[in-house]
Amino acid sequence: GGMKAVLWADVFQSILMYAALFAIIIKGFLLLGGNGNIFEIANKGGRLIIPRFTLDPEVHYSMFSVIAHGIIITMSEYGGSQIQVQRLRTLKNLNKSKLAAFLSIPMLVSFHLLCCLCGLIIYAYFRFCDPLTSPDSPIEAADQLLPYFITTTFSDLPGLPGLCICGIFSATLSTISSTTNSLTSVTSEDFLKPIFPSLSIKVFQNKIISE
C-alpha cells in the first residue's frame, strides 16, 4: 500500500501508455505512408509552426514564451509539486533522488513528443473529413478524436482497440492515484497530526482518509 503501491501502479500504467502510443503511431505510419507524408501533410495544413525568435509579448507563439513556459512548468513540477517531491523523498538518499529526477527528463520528453506525433497522425488521417464538423458526426468534442481514431482504424485487429483505450485511461488513473496519495499524506501530516499530536496515522487510516 501507500507510495509503493502508487509507484508500481505508475510503472504498469506507463507501460500501457507507451504501448498505446506506439500502436497508434505504427498504425498511422501504415495508413498514411510513413512519417514523411505525415509531416508533409501537417506542414501544408499549418500544423508545424516554428517559434519566432522575438521578445514581443503580443506574439502568441515565440521562442521566448516556449522557454519561459518550460522553465515555469518544470520548476513547479520538480520543485514544488507534492506528487513529485513525495516520490523523490521515498528514495534512500539525495543522490538517488537527483538521479531519478534526471532520468525522468528523457522519458517525459519522449512521451510528449510521441503525443505530438499522435496528434499529427490524427490530423493527417481526418484532414479531408473532420468528424467534428461533419453532419452525421459520431463525436461531439475534440477530446473524443483519439478514441474515435482508435475504434475506426483498429476495428480489424482484435484486442488492440482495448489496449489503446486502456492506455488512455492509464494516463488518467496514474494522475488520480498519485494525487489521492499526496492529498492523503498532506491531510494526515499537516492537518491531523498538528491537531492530534499523539495520533498514530497507520496505513488503513490513511486509506480511510483517501476514500
Automatic annotation (TrEMBL):
The keyword Transferase does not apply. Gene3D superfamilies: Sodium/glucose cotransporter. One of its GO terms (molecular function) is symporter activity. The keyword Membrane applies. It is found in: Cell membrane. The chain crosses the membrane at residues 15-39, 99-126. Its main location: membrane. Belongs to the sodium:solute symporter (SSF) (TC 2.A.21) family. This is Putative sodium-dependent multivitamin transporter. It comes from Trichonephila inaurata madagascariensis.
